[in-house]
Specification:
The complex is a heterodimer of chains A (114) and B (113). Chain A is built from no helices and eleven strands. Chain A has 114 residues and is mostly beta strands. With 113 residues, chain B is mainly β. Chain B is built from no helices and eleven strands. In chain B, a hairpin with a 6-residue loop joins strand 4 and strand 5 (45-50). Classes of the chains: A mainly beta (114), B mainly beta (113).
């Protein structure tokens, strides 16, 4: 079975540019999560969706960040304009509903803003 | 503020020893707990899940849960160099009909030959 698929795996861009990260969750999963991981802050939840609807975006650091899930098989996380402090690894994860349901993570996108 | 606390380490153990990783959580609404392993440059992968007080064993791994003390631990027996990784503890909390995990910062484990 295909796992969570993220693209691109690596992104290097200059400050001020728009960055779009993509995610395809596991088919049938109800929830999709976007995380950011840094050495300083660990794994931070940015936003999550339930059945394609954004539920909680309180973790999104600034208005420069936005996320969409137009259908059950695709989500994007966009940063515009990007800044060097946005450099991190961004993970997408998906899961079924339930306290006993683990999250399945994609391979992540390593983002470097110069 | 829901919190999951882990000692960042690194925890260094010799090959063949028992590695003990600990985690405390603040939300008593959390009923189940997950341990993920994350190799450097890779994504977290699930290794253990526990929801009942006591021990749960899976191969060389044993998860222990004490809800009264709000404490979860992971024991790795016969540690191998391939176990060297960061171990993340996660505690899902009820939130508006959903269960949203809070992750600890992770404990770095180094198993030396």
């Amino acid at each position: 079975d295909a796992g969570v698929i993220q693209s691109p795996r690596h992104e290097v861009t200059e400050m001020g540019q728009e960055v779009t990260l993509r995610c395809k969750p596991i088919s049938g999963h109800d929830y999709l999560f976007w995380y950011r991981q840094t050495m300083m802050r660990g794994l931070e939840l940015l936003i999550y969706f339930n059945n394609n609807v954004p539920i909680d975006d309180s973790g999104m650091p600034e208005d420069r960040f936005s996320a969409k899930m137009p259908n059950a098989s695709f989500s994007t996380l966009k940063i515009q304009p990007s800044e060097p402090r946005d450099s991190a690894v961004y993970f997408c994860a998906s899961s079924f509903w339930g306290s006993n349901q683990p999250q399945h993570f994609g391979d992540g996108t390593r983002l470097s803003i110069l | 503020q829901k919190e999951v606390e882990q000692n960042s380490g690194p925890l260094s153990v010799p090959e063949g020893a028992i590695a003990s990783l600990n985690c405390t959580y603040s939300d008593r609404g959390s009923q189940s707990f997950f341990w993920y392993r994350q190799y450097s440059g890779k994504s977290p992968e699930l290794i253990m899940f526990i929801y009942s007080n006591g021990d749960k064993e899976d191969g060389r791994f044993t998860a222990q849960l004490n809800k009264a003390s709000q404490y979860v631990s992971l024991l790795i027996r016969d540690s191998q160099p391939s176990d060297s990784a960061t171990y993340l503890c996660a505690a899902p909390s009820p939130s508006g009909g959903s269960y949203i995990p809070t992750f600890g910062r992770g404990t770095s484990l180094i198993v030396h030959p």
